[in-house]
Specification:
47% of the residues lie in helices and 15% in strands. It is an alpha/beta fold and 384 residues long. The protein binds NADP nicotinamide-adenine-dinucleotide phosphate.
């Protein structure tokens, strides 16, 4: 029986994880769950899954949850509790499903403690890839990707990486694929969040619409699979059926296919190296009219180009990009800036913040805070 801790339990990935875990009561039990402010959803989850611990990062939300709970779950609050339970001796598997940089410290804590980390929080790798991968190597932790593209590559590489020449991440192109740039200036947050294939949280939905999500995934793949930017391609595949490709020197190309449902990748991260039921239906290719593939348009989707530039620049550049992106996406979701301004804010922040070495978590946090400040002041200047 494995004890599962899910950080970000009230979100899209967190709820899908609970869904898969519930199919296997003989294999898994929920040890701890976390959320930020949504104590009402957490109350439901506590009643349904009876965790030992529930963390509400927000102190007032923790009080509300404590007052409403009539079970034996222990309620904790504050950011430190996330790392404490990620590294807790009774946590066997950690689902890292907090959105953004807020998930980084707890992911690192689990890596240092040698846990199996089921990694949805790609921002951890983008911000602190070298530090996190070092911690994984030193502790013997298992880092299993949950992003569907990286899960696909991870599955394709189970036979080893000998002869691997490149990988190609598939991208749906988001809700605005083929929409002319002139129309994108006025799109609303709800339109940007209406993804054609995947149901996701609002930040990653906007990232998919700008293709920054694919940019973050290119950087994530660099750290996970130890590949240079020249060996990581992106191809637009609007149907989201093929989840990525691994190309080998002998001309072979391996890929993993499946319906666009995150429970497949979550299930694999839980059951690896075996497989078990995820609740996802069988793919029937005879029901699919066509599978299309296009090269990405880096002029229309300049966020993807910026991510490649940041990866080439190395050191702190990817962290700067991700921090600025969190601020710009938040401003867009709150109607402070237009959709097309997201990429220009990222470009200006990358120009303004120096690229420095990141040797410690403090260096990472300092660069993250500075980049956020710079992005905020660029937004203020844009709105003035
Ligand atoms: N959704 C997908 O299909 C998908 C696919 C691949 C990768 N991912 C990655 O998985 C991560 C989660 O995505 P999601 O779509 O599940 O996000 P989401 O639906 O927005 O859920 C985010 C979760 O994080 C919690 N949270 C938010 N801010 C926090 C903070 N400052 N401190 C601690 N917890 C915080 C939220 O709690 P509250 O509910 O209290 O706000 C919620 O539980 C992201 O890194 C995303 O890129 C997602």
């Amino acid at each position: 029986m494995k004890n599962i801790t899910i950080l970000g339990a009230t979100g899209s990935i967190g709820l899908s994880t609970l869904n898969v875990v519930s199919l296997h009561p003989d294999k898994y039990q929920i040890f701890a769950l976390s959320a930020n402010t949504n104590w009402q959803k957490m109350l439901e989850l506590c009643h349904a899954h009876k965790p030992h611990f529930a963390i509400m990062v927000d102190v007032a939300a923790a009080e509300q949850l404590q007052n409403a709970l009539n079970s034996e779950t222990i309620v904790l609050s504050g950011e430190a509790a996330l790392s404490e339970l990620a590294a807790h001796e009774q946590t066997d598997y950690l689902m890292a499903a907090i959105v953004g940089a807020a998930g980084m410290a707890s992911t690192l804590a689990a890596a240092q403690a040698g846990k199996r980390i089921m990694l949805a929080n790609k921002e951890s790798l983008v911000l602190a890839g070298d530090i996190l991968m070092d911690a994984v190597r030193h502790s013997g932790a298992e880092l299993i990707p949950v992003d569907s593209e990286h899960s696909a590559i991870f599955q394709c590489l189970q036979g080893g990486t000998k002869g691997l020449s490149k990988i190609q991440l598939t991208a749906s192109g988001g809700p605005f694929l083929g929409v002319p740039l002139t129309k994108l200036a006025t799109v609303t947050p709800d339109e940007a969040c209406a993804h054609p294939n995947w149901v996701m949280g609002r930040k990653i939905s906007v990232d998919s619409a700008t293709m920054m999500n694919k940019g973050l995934e290119v950087i994530e793949a660099h750290f996970l699979f130890g590949l240079s930017h020249e060996n990581i391609d992106v191809v637009v595949h609007p149907q989201s059926i093929i989840h990525s490709f691994a190309y080998f020197d002998d001309g072979s190309v391996l890929s993993q296919l499946g319906l666009p449902d995150m429970r497949t990748a979550i299930s694999y991260a839980l059951s690896h190296p075996e497989r078990h039921n995820s609740g996802v239906g069988m793919l029937d290719l005879t029901q699919k009219k066509s599978l299309e593939f296009y090269p990405p348009d880096l002029d229309a989707f300049s966020c993807l180009r910026l991510a490649y530039d940041a990866l080439k620049a190395g050191k702190s550049a990817a962290g700067t990009l991700s921090a600025a992106n969190e601020i710009a996406v938040d401003a867009f979701l709150n109607n402070k800036i237009g959709f097309l301004e997201i990429s220009s804010i990222l470009e200006k922040t990358l120009e303004a913040v120096s690229v420095v070495s990141l040797d410690t978590l403090d260096d990472v946090m300092e660069n993250d805070q500075l980049s956020r400040q710079v992005a905020r002041s660029i937004i203020e200047a844009t709105c003035a």
